[in-house]
Design a protein that fits this description.
- Its EC number is 6.3.5.2.
- Catalyzes the synthesis of GMP from XMP.
- Homodimer.
- The chain is an alpha/beta fold and 318 residues long.
- Helices cover 42% and strands 20% of the residues.
- The strands form two sheets. The protein has a five-stranded parallel β-sheet with strand order 3-2-1-4-5, with helices on both faces. Strands 6, 7, 8 and 9 form a four-stranded mixed β-sheet that branches.
- A hairpin with a 7-residue loop joins strand 7 and strand 8.
- Helix 1 packs across helix 2, helix 2 crosses helix 8 and helix 4 packs antiparallel against helix 5.
- The longest helix has 21 residues.
- It is globular, with a radius of gyration of 20 Å.
- The structure holds xanthosine-5'-monophosphate.
- Xanthosine-5'-monophosphate binds next to loops.
Length: 318
């Protein structure tokens, strides 16, 4: 549209003005916001943009490969992929508290990002996908007592590394970011992608994160995505995902008694994640997802549907 076109042109102009011939780094997550920022910056400064993607081992199935395909192969960007799965899992060992998990993941992310950034030539700027609701939320939830959940981003880094921030999406809402992404030619799969938390699958495994639990949840999550897409429901909801509960229940498989894990299915509608309602998806879709998870994911024998809205619940379980 005309407005998005002029937004893109004005942003590119402003970025060029600010950056001059300097170098910029960007933490790519594969989500809509950081993807749009990366493409916008790439249009503005080309090879002087350096993207870093940290594979923390807490990602969805095939995510790391997809990011490389889109940004390195298709957009031809400078992209460093850091495989840090073992480090993250090592530090998460034995940790069950949700905020503790977030802190560990956020801090290690910063450590790794900082180390990688130091290898790059004279970087002076950090580009970030901060949106308008993030700006509001960090103002209204000031102070640790009022913090509902510590959201993980690269906060803290700019000062430590003496970097100047570039936040071209600061005045936009999510739906506007999607329009900008479309204007920039990002693939529809990225534009319509549901939000995915920085701490990833770690906060969807209630209790301790282990490689085995990650394998189970990653498979269940992939099936949820597949079924939502096949039914034409993926684009109709804000988020859809699986949560692995720290509960086992009894079941039967053939003539055998099973005592396996429980997956909770969470599907919500929302406009800005500040409030949300559980989505009234068709029973047939629920049935399809449940059958596939129980039949195809070893170790799971029960699926339940989350019928809580936000508030008083939150979208994520941790
Ligand atoms: P809650 O669970 O607070 O989530 O209702 C609101 C939205 O934020 C996402 N979320 C996070 N995103 N780091 C993120 O980048 C986090 O630590 C985090 N926690 C929740 C969540 O997926 C939902 O879209």
């Amino acid at each position: 549209t005309w407005t998005m076109k002029s937004f893109v042109e004005a942003s590119i102009e402003a970025i060029r003005e600010k950056v001059g011939d300097g170098h910029v780094i960007c933490a790519l997550s594969g989500g809509v916001d950081s993807s749009v920022v990366a493409v916008l910056l790439h249009k503005a400064v080309g090879p002087r943009l350096h993207c870093i993607f940290v594979d923390n081992g807490l990602l969805r199935k095939g995510e790391s490969e997809a990011v490389q395909r889109v940004f390195r192969d298709h957009f031809d960007m400078n992209l460093t992929v850091v495989d840090a799965a073992r480090q993250f899992l090592g530090r998460l060992k034995g940790v069950t508290d949700p905020e503790e998990k977030r802190k560990i993941i956020g801090n290690l992310f910063i450590e790794i990002f900082e180390r990688e950034a130091q290898r790059l030539p004279n970087v002076r700027y950090l580009a970030q996908g901060t949106l308008y609701p993030d700006v509001i939320e960090s103002v209204s939830f000031k102070g640790p007592s009022a913090t509902i959940k510590t959201h993980h981003n690269v906060g803290g880094l700019p000062e430590r590394m003496d970097l100047e921030l570039i936040e071209p999406l600061r005045e936009l809402f999510k739906d506007e970011v999607r329009l900008v992404g479309r204007e920039l030619g990002l693939p529809e799969r990225i534009i319509m992608r549901h939000p995915f938390p920085g701490p990833g699958l770690a906060i969807r495994i209630i209790g301790e994160v282990t490689p085995e639990k990650l394998r189970v949840l990653r498979e269940a999550d992939a099936l949820v995505m597949e079924e939502m897409e096949a039914a034409g429901w993926y684009d109709k909801v804000w988020q859809a995902f699986a949560v692995l509960l720290p509960v086992r229940s009894v079941g039967v498989m053939g003539d055998e008694r099973t005592y396996d894990e429980v997956v909770a299915l969470r599907v919500v509608e929302s406009v800005d994640a500040m409030t949300a309602d559980w989505a009234r998806i068709p029973y047939e879709l629920m049935a399809g997802i449940s059958n596939r998870i129980i039949n195809e994911v070893p170790g799971v024998n029960r699926v339940v549907y989350d019928i809580s809205s936000k508030p008083p619940s939150t979208i994520e379980w941790e």
